[in-house]
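Recap quiz, item 2
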Amino acid sequence: MKSAFELKTYKSAIVPTWCPGCGDFAVLSALQKTIHALQLEPWNVVIVSGIGCSSNLPHFLSTYGFHSIHGRSVPVATGIKLANPDLHVIITGGDGDGYGIGMGHFIHGMRRNLDVTYLVMNNQTYGLTTGQASPTSEKGMKTKSTPNVGVIESPIDPLSLAISSGATFVSRVFSGDVKHMAEVVQRGMEHKGFSLIDCLSPCVTYNKLNTYEWFRERVYDLAKEGHDPKDIRAAFAKAIEWPTVQRDRIPIGVFYRVDGAPTYEQLEPGLQRGPPVRQPLGLEDPESLMAEFL
Amino acid sequence: MPKLEFVLRVGGAAGDGVSSTSESFSKVCSRSGLHVWTYSSYQSVIRGGHVWTQVRAGVDPLLSHGEDPDILIALNQQTLDVHQGEVASGGAIIFDAENTKADPAKSRAGVRHLGIGLRRTAQEFSKNALMRNTVALGAAVALLELDFRHVESAFKDIWGDKKPEIVEQNIGAAKAGAGTVAQQGGSLGFGLRLSNEPRILMTGNHAICLGALAAGCKFLAQYPMTPASSILHWMAINGPGRGVVVKQVEDELAAVNMAIGAGFAGVRAMTATSGGGFSLMVEGLGQGGMTETPVVAILVQRAGPSTGLPTKTEQGDLNLALGAGQGDWPRAILAPRNPEECFTLTAQAFNLAEIYQTPIIVVSDLYLSEGYRTIDPLDFNVPIVRGMMAADGGPVSGFRRYRHTDSGVSPRAFPGMKGYQHIAATDEHMESGELISDVLAGVPEHIEERKRQMEKRMRKIEGLRKDTPPPELWGPSHADVTLITWGSTQGPAREAIRRVEAGEGITANVVESPTLFPVHGDETLDLLRGSKRTLAVEGNYTGQFARLLRAETGFQPDRFFGKYDGEPFTAREIAAKILEVVS
């Protein structure tokens, strides 16, 4: 019989080091609630992160974790999941980590449709390095690295990228609405396939433009406007609404989902015998392998 | 007197079938019971260019790809122009008499010019002229009096049951080629003693794959790069059915990070690349060192710097492997000297990676990775040692993943093991895995803990030094000249030593290091004690190993012979250098 885990079981003894008011607290809370709601065994959960404020998250929960290097959380998580597909693998990190230095892996990770959940705490700035422009910083935003005329690049639009790259669950949530966030995170975790959850997670210290207030005035729930996440054209239209088309209304919720698409683990020939971590070591049939060399 | 060995060289443009000819011919030789050593010179093009392959075969074990060919198969005019003058006296040149021209004045005395209608003969068996190389192959087999049944079996292995008509066409074309030899003077009369007992024929990269599988490798992530790609190709065919995940991924950053993720999750994992890809892997490898995660990285060197000569050999990446990653972290760098050692050292690398919970680098090179060579039988009963595991009796509550120990190795736990949850972090951390870097760095007790964690990790080097193979002295214990080499230079250096002794009566020996790091300083100095004159021989410009040896031991070789023209060492040029040193 499965023992019931209490919510506090999932919390580690380490106190988060984030600034008071940081949006990442909401993501931590939503994730903890979700793992609790799903009653996952902490030892079968691995949280993989990169580098940045938000990448410290694994330390604050009681599961296994791998706090990797900047931008490489997705490949590390991929290796873990392929070595042992029975594990629940969650990836956390920031917009610089995932959409900047890790962009290549972000796209290829989604192409693979591995059964993992990726929470990107998107604060549109580089917090841990004290406030430079990020790949999602708005055009014109003045930062330490763009002091003159502000950012002159267009911001990355992670959601339309995700839809076109093969992610099968694409969503956005806001740290100002933890209840909604926890619901979406749970749906993402329950989804079989690559789930992207872009978390609008304000940086209270370095981003004075995209604040809680700024978001509160703009966000709206897609579900309440009758959006059908199974309609890929509608999903693209909603995905490009912000930041590509305009900046007055920001949709949150589930943009796109495909159910029943085969996961990478299901298709991978090397996994047909079961999880590699449980396979015997050594070669059973050296003679058959040597035949081609004689 | 019967000859003991011969060299066959086949040349043409890329796409002429040079490599398929040499592969079939190598198989014919190995099945005849001969020892075989091949070397291919090719360029980074798919069609065109000038490509040639050399197959040396002998009754006794071989040490290099040899030098002047006894038989030259010229599939185009350029091959004749470039190689005709190198054919040894008593040998033969096979060329197409109808569209290429051999100039007898350019050949050495006593070389037979065997002009055959290669294209015309090939077209008797198939509409296209592709099989002209097969006609030439048949002629070479007849010149050497090899058993024709090995030709038939080689073709059957290549095309198999799927395309029996192609097998028949090729056998016909080869027989026709052999027939022309009978009409034009018969065999060369080498009188080779053939046992017709098949020998194992493979490349260094094959041996690396087999060593990995024997050691229980369950995960390979790789990005294509010459000359490491054949590891990916062979594993993709042979791995998945044996429960091995084999992935071509988006770049080498992904490759090394996936392998480290897999290693953290508890499977034996590896990645393979050449210098360019390895350059991208260095941060990931440092991550393995810091998080104490096992992983095996295969570095098959080619000529650098940068893109360099993608299809040419070099031993120029020792410094890269040695310095990979910021800061100090423990590693071992192993350098196989031959295919047998590609097998054993790769298998050993997996044990070392898990015993010491750190990345282990195996450094090979193009010369070793791509050439087909006959080898001794492999022993697949390799020991598998997984190192210290938490389940072996560590405390379940308050598990300290990075516990201080005398060896520097702490009990390890995989995700899925109940009660051992921890965070593996690339930031500096305490015994528990909790970070020091964020809010504790600089606090006195944590200054001390940082120091202790660093020392704990670096203590592994002493264990690695004990568990890695020591240097070996080959040749007489006292000699006029002592060579210092590593990796694939073993063969040509040993052959040069035999040659100067037989030819000039000069004695030489060689100190070979299958472990490049940790440096076995004391053992190396023991072997070098009493040496008269020392000559470091390496396939690079700066003498990377000689410099490392000097840094670690203070020992300075008298002379350095570096090669960085992209070609492998020949016994001839090393022998000449030995003579220069004694004169």
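Chain B has a mean pLDDT of 96.
Chain B touches chain A through 73 residues (CB under 8 Å).
End of item.
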